[in-house]
Specification:
4-stranded mixed sheet, elongated, 4 strands, 2 domains, alpha/beta, 12 helices, Transcription Regulator spoIIAA
Amino acid sequence: MNYTVSPLFMKIALSGRLVIARLEEVRAQVTAPATEADITLDLSQVEAMDTAGAWLLVTTQNAVQGRGGRCEIAGASQNHADLLEVVRQSIPDQAPTAKPRHGFFDWLEVIGQKTWFGILGVIEMLGFLGAVLARLGYVAIHPRRLRVTSLVHHMQEVGLNAVPIVSLMAFLIGVVMAFQGAVQLRQFGAEVFVVDLIAISVLRELGILLTAIIVAGRSGAAFTAAIGSMKMREEIDAMRTFGLDPIEILILPRVLALVIMLPLLGFVADVMGLLGGAMMSWIELDVSPGMFQTRLYDSVDVWHYAVGLIKAPFFAVIIAIVGCYEGMKVGGDAESLGRLTSTSVVLSIFLVIVADAMFSILFAVIGI
């Protein structure tokens, strides 16, 4: 490599093979003078050049021009010139860095954009729910299309395997409520009403709500991760290529399994919550199990249990649809899988709480 210096520019004459094997050597020799002066790269003695060499020349030229200097590429043969042009066109333009925006109107614009994207997401999710319901109707007409083995497998995963954590959670909630209720009711000599507090709270609200939250964090995230992993490995695209419906094979069994098992998990949570409350009432307030049972029968209506049971299938549909929908949105990178799995859990819990609030308003209006 030869250098010719003039008062206005430096001429660098390249020779030999400008290929990837010599890339680091040529880069060191070209980059240093490129930072000192305007340069001309003479390629008249270059015997061969590949895309790596062309990339080095183009990026060097862009760097010099980026600092306000001049960089010319001269003496290139037609083949080399064509290769340089292809590489130059292939390098993406760097988007200008957005300046940080401040102020009320900028904040209002961001809020509006997020709101609009949220509305579009709700519409897409409703469309996804409609597709699942349509496939459910088709399977109801053709029962042989139902994947019974997959359904049973997911019932075990989301139901039986979740019994220990749900039971422990409900038992401890019953213990905490009985203890806190005893502290407050003892001041008024109304210790016996702790039975009403525990029973109504667990049966109407906390039993099924906390169960749904645990299932959203456990099974909803598992749905997103499993389907998202298949999406990353292009298994879902392969299924469509073979004429298989991913909704029928992957999503419908998960939705049905959760709809069947969440009411059963809610029943387990109610029983364990009452058991924990009864035990703490016996220890803290000397309310015997027989008295607890009698007070439970006398003061708690069956509708308190029915209210929780009615909400369970709706919570199950929300969790399953959100988990599967977010899984189907996963792209080809692990970053999107982790992000959408977290989104699935947060969105499921949020929608479950919103649905629970709407049910509470509805039951209050109709007097249940």
